Amino acid sequence: METQLRLRPSLSSRTGPQLTNCLLECTRMTYYKKLQIQDNNNIRLKDSTEGDLGEYCWSKELKCTLGESFLRAYVVLPVDISAAGHEQLEVITSAPVATKLHLHASSTTVPESCGLRYDVTEHFSTGESETSFCVKLSTQEDVLGDSVLRCPPYLVTFWKRGPNQSNQQGEG
């Protein structure tokens, strides 16, 4: 008889820039939807890195291609909807001030099946001095809410293409 263990997603076991199955599947679904709706923006998906005390973090130094301009950013939580407590999940930013993020309910190019989406555009478009952006998850029953995730969260950024866009890296 085989026993299946339910493990919490852990970033500490990852070495190097590995991609989660959730991120790969969401990338596939996002680009499929992008083609369907003829969205002309560039889209990038990026896995989180482990921060302090259960935080999920991303660098605020976003790479762009020359001619692109930053439009929007979303943190996507690949939630296990069968897990108890996913309805009470709270997403809180870490710095400079702890702020509760609100679920983004409008339609986006990122399919709903990728997970819960939280608009974090303002955290990447302001001139704050922090070099990284981190979130922490919690539920009413659990101090850490990452037990309801299928995979660690990831960041999705949208970029407007310039008229003469090239493939050279720029500062955004």
- Note the total helix count: 2
Order of helices and strands: HEEEEEEEEHEEE
Number of strands: 11
Mind summarizing the main beta sheet? 5 strands, antiparallel
Strand order of the largest sheet: 2-3-9-6-7
Oligomer: single chain
Strand residue percentage: 25-35%
Structural shape: globular
Unreliable runs:
1-17
Question: What is Rg?
Answer: 17 Å
Mean of all residue-level pLDDT scores: 79
List keywords for this structure.
alpha+beta, five-stranded antiparallel β-sheet, 11 strands, disordered N terminus, globular
Q: What does the model show?
A:
By secondary structure, this protein is an alpha+beta fold. The protein has one domain. Helices cover 13% and strands 28% of the residues. The chain has 2 helices and 11 strands; from the N terminus they run αββββββββαβββ. The strands form 3 sheets. The protein has a 5-stranded antiparallel sheet with strand order 2-3-9-6-7, with no helix packed on it. A 4-stranded antiparallel sheet has the order 1-10-5-8. A two-stranded antiparallel sheet has the order 4-11. A hairpin with a 5-residue loop joins β2 and β3.
Task: Describe this structure in a few short sentences.
The chain has 172 residues and is of the alpha+beta class. Helices cover 13% and strands 28% of the residues. It has one domain (43-163).
Q: Secondary structure elements and their pairing?
A:
Elements: H1 21-37, E1 42-47, E2 49-50, E3 56-59, E4 64-65, E5 69-77, E6 90-93, E7 100-101, E8 116-119, H2 121-125, E9 132-138, E10 154-160, E11 169-170
Antiparallel strand pairs: 1-10, 2-3, 3-9, 4-11, 5-8, 5-10, 6-7, 6-9
